């Protein structure tokens, strides 16, 4: 008869950031153990609060399933000696399987006879192996950080305070670090008490009676519902960031939403500062009006019921007042700091032992930015803004506000630069040069911000590559992949007419000139091309098929705007044009023969067939507009022009013997195909497409 299985591990408070992964790990390990143990089961639910991890498995079979397994042994030739007796190999196989040789049977497999034995394994009672199985599940769990307690060698995320292990109504007898399993759980620290669980299936409701909402989804729904109700009642826009909601979710056992207020005079501070202080220090949700402006209120979630909410709110207001007073003090003190003085302090902050100080980095950013601006041909006024923005882009790193809240770098720089009288384009670029900060973040909106952002990122990447810091596997401590992806995104979204190789070359040249490079330029350049090819490929793969991506990448990824445009055009053609397959087949016939061509120019006087003259003329007629389309990164137009060659190519192969007896005629025909193939391969390697 099937029963429910409950396993709860009671703990001292676990850090919120560990809990979801731990809950999922407990479920995964339990399921895998049941499956490997041949124990049938139904629905599986995992639970977590700050003080517990639990898994409840429905309809667990009371007995392992019986199995009959056929095992293949040595071939007949090896199993029998010349006298027809069992060989040592056959006898060894019998011992390893726990059977007698007389149980052997012969079966043919691929024309060869082998010995087989059938092993029958009778399932044992589930209750007999649960204790060992759950002990193994618990002790195999891993966490980002572990601890030991008492005199025990065992390590876990936090000390274990109680264990509930039940199979139906029966307690599963097990013990770890002096804690014995039972059917008694612990409720809310202040509102609940210990409680007996009569049966495993009663777990959720027993804890509910003890003021613990153990189901994570139910707890989240309660928080969101209460926040939405409060927002509707007050006509507020409560800014709920998913990562903060996730953290709060695992800080409470019974969630109750409440709100408080703060002195409106604090609103004189930039709202990013206030919001960051509320979120990072207090785990509060900020309150905005319909226009997105901060209001002097906050929303928080307590672990408890709705009693004494006024007292709780006042306590939170008192704590927040102190936090915001600190922020106001830092903000006012920072404005006494001159930008020139701040820049001088950057000389004493080490960026990396082998790459110098932040001051050294800023000088490299300035030179790279100036070179990029010249390459892009921006106006003199914009170039001046680029230079100034590059010079001061890191000055806010020495401010008290950024020291307290590192995530405000750039945010405070923009505000302080504007207050110091810097041009708007410069102040904005100080903020924007950090963008995109994370996946999905916006790129800089201005050319000035874009140029300084690219300069900052490529300086970091080239510097790290120079000293051998190149991401491998999951290791990327300097977030170089993210920064490279940022460069690619900026170039693409602003359609900047610059090649990645130019960006690499500028940065490498300046690093070499400033004597920072520790490896040869050629070695680093090769690594950069390989590294960025993967970033471009990742970008393309978000919307395009793998074979389309491979095809266009093979034709070159140096011009990001071009490769994306070519990929989009090719993907559209593959998906929608019914006859595009035959077009590609004609292109591939050209490529196959072009590989045999020598390095000679096409001579129209050697044409002997009308079809080769026609192909040559059609090719020449599209070349200029094709090259213009490629220069404009107009992939759709370029592919359409290439596709016009389909008919003359087909006619050519239908009527012309390429490998003619006359060597001069053959070489000329191959040269024609080679020229066309050259243009095709500027767009894509069509041979990589899979139909």
Percentage of helical residues? 40-55%
β-strand number: 18
- What radius of gyration results from the CA coordinates? 35 Å
Assign an overall shape: flat
Tell me which CATH architecture of the largest domain applies here. Orthogonal Bundle
Index terms:
691 residues, alpha+beta, 5 domains, 7-stranded mixed sheet, 4-stranded antiparallel sheet, 26 helices, 18 strands
Short description:
It contains 26 helices and 18 strands.
Descriptive account of the structure:
By secondary structure, this protein is an alpha+beta fold. It has five domains: 3-63 and 126-209; 72-118, no CATH class; 217-334, no CATH class; 340-542, Hypothetical protein af1432, CATH 1.10.3210; 560-688, Orthogonal Bundle (Isoleucyl-tRNA Synthetase, Domain 1). It is built from 26 helices and 18 strands. Strands 1, 2, 3, 7, 8, 9 and 10 form a seven-stranded mixed beta sheet that branches. A hairpin with a 2-residue loop joins strand 9 (175-176) and strand 10 (179-182). The two termini are 53 Å apart. The model has no long low-confidence stretch (mean pLDDT 93).
């Amino acid at each position: 008869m099937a029963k429910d299985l409950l396993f709860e591990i009671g703990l001292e408070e676990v850090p919120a950031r560990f809990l979801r992964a731990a809950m999922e790990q407990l479920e995964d390990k339990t399921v895998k153990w049941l499956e490997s143990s041949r124990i049938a089961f139904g629905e599986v639910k995992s639970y977590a609060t700050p003080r517990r991890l639990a898994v409840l498995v429905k309809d667990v079979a009371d007995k392992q399933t019986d199995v009959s397994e056929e095992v293949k042994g040595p071939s007949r030739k090896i199993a029998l000696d010349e006298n027809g007796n069992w060989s040592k190999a056959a006898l060894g196989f019998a011992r390893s399987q726990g059977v007698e040789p007389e149980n052997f049977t012969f079966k043919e497999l691929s024309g060869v006879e082998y010995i087989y034995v059938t092993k029958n394994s009778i399932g044992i009672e589930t209750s007999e192996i649960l204790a060992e199985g759950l002990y193994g599940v618990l002790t195999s769990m891993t966490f980002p950080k572990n601890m030991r307690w008492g005199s025990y060698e065992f390590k876990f995320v936090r000390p274990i305070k109680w264990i509930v292990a039940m199979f139906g109504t029966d307690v599963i007898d097990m013990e770890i670090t002096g804690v014995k399993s039972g059917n008694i759980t612990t409720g809310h620290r202040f509102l609940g008490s210990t409680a007996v669980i009569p049966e495993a299936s009663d777990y959720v409701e027993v804890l509910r009676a003890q003021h613990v909402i153990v189901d994570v989804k139910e707890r989240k729904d309660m928080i969101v519902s209460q926040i939405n109700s409060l927002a509707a009642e007050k006509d507020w826009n409560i800014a709920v960031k998913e990562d903060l909601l996730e953290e709060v979710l695992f800080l409470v056992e019974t969630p109750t939403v409440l709100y408080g207020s703060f002195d409106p005079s604090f609103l004189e501070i930039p709202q990013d500062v206030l919001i960051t202080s509320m979120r990072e220090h207090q785990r509060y949700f900020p309150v905005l009006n319909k226009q997105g402006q901060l209001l002097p209120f906050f929303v928080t979630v307590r672990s408890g019921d709705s009693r004494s909410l006024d007292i709780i709110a006042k306590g939170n207001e008192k704590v927040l007042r102190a936090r915001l007073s600190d922020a106001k003090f830092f903000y006012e003190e920072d404005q006494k700091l001159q930008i020139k003085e701040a820049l001088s302090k950057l000389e004493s902050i080490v960026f990396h032992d082998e790459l110098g100080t932040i001051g050294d980095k800023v000088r490299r950013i300035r030179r790279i930015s100036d070179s990029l601006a010249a390459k892009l041909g921006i106006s003199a006024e914009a170039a001046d803004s680029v230079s100034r923005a590059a010079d001061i882009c890191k000055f806010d790193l020495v401010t008290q506000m950024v020291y307290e809240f590192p995530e405000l770098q750039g945010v405070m720089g923009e505000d302080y630069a504007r207050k110091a009288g810097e041009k708007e384009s410069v102040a904005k670029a100080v903020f924007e040069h950090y963008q995109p900060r994370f996946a999905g973040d916006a790129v800089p909106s201005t050319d000035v911000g874009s140029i300084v952002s690219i300069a900052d990122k490529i300086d970091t990447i080239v510097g790290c590559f120079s000293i051998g810091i190149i991401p491998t596997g999951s290791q990327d401590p300097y977030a170089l992949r993210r920064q490279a992806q940022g460069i690619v995104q900026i170039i693409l979204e602003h359609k900047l007419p610059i090649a990645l190789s130019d960006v690499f070359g500028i940065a490498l040249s300046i690093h070499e000139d400033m004597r920072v490079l520790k490896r040869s330029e050629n070695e680093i350049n090769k690594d950069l091309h390989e590294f960025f090819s993967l970033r471009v490929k990742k970008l393309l793969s978000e919307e395009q098929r793998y074979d389309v991506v491979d095809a266009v990448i093979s034709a070159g990824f140096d011009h990001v705007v071009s490769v994306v445009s070519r990929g989009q055009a090719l993907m559209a053609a593959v998906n929608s044009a019914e006859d595009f397959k035959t077009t590609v087949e004609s292109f591939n016939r050209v490529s196959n023969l072009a590989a045999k061509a020598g390095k000679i120019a096409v001579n129209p006087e050697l044409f002997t067939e009308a079809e080769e003259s026609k192909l040559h003329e059609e090719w020449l007629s599209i070349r200029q507009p094709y090259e213009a389309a490629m220069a404009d990164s107009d992939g759709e137009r370029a592919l359409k022009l290439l596709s016009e060659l389909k008919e003359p190519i087909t006619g050519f192969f239908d009527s012309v013997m390429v490998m003619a007896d006359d060597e001069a005629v053959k070489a000329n025909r191959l040269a024609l195909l080679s020229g066309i193939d050259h243009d095709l391969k500027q767009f894509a390697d069509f041979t990589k497409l899979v139909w």
